[in-house]
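User: Some background: our group keeps a shared notebook of sequences we're curious about, and every so often someone picks one and asks for a predicted structure to add to the entry. Today it's my turn. The entry only has the sequence so far, pasted here. Could you supply the structure so I can complete it?
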Amino acid sequence: MVATHADEELLRAQEEAKENDATKDMLLGDINKRDADNLELVYRQCRRFFFDNPGKAGAFMGVTVAKALKKLNVDLEGSTRRALSPIWRHESPVADIDKQLLLAGVRVERRRYEDPQDTVRSGIYIYKANEIAYFISEPFGVKTLKKPEESQGENVVDLRAPHRKEWDALMVVTNYKE
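Assistant: Of course. Here's the predicted structure to add to the notebook entry:
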């Protein structure tokens, strides 16, 4: 099998990602501690966004993931557009996105935590060179204090209320800034 220029480019990107990996010479315990420390720093940078229904919260989450990836040179919208074009139909948008992620040195993880106290940690983690670049939480129910109808919510009290009668807004937290 003959290697193409694209194959060589992907191999070069894989090698570069290995070289730029900040954790390549660390022990697993050290990596876990470092990840926890980085996560704390990311959480301190997060902003809160409030929504009154799951559809709006989920749409916000999706748009924010796409914008964050675009800042890291991964174009989800362009991949989808190309996949719908008759010229590019032979190429899968998933394969194109995977290729872009690899070339950009970006990794995306979706984590879910079952413990109600860890609800805010559930979400999409976007890594660049094994460092957390962006975090976008899953939408979760919160109880707000004296929320006027026109407000988007303030003074979050309870992050663990899973039932609609116990929460009056959905919150998404993210460190992404435009």
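Suggested note for the entry: The two ends are 44 Å apart (CA to CA). The helical segments are 5-19, 28-45, 54-71, 76-84, 93-104.
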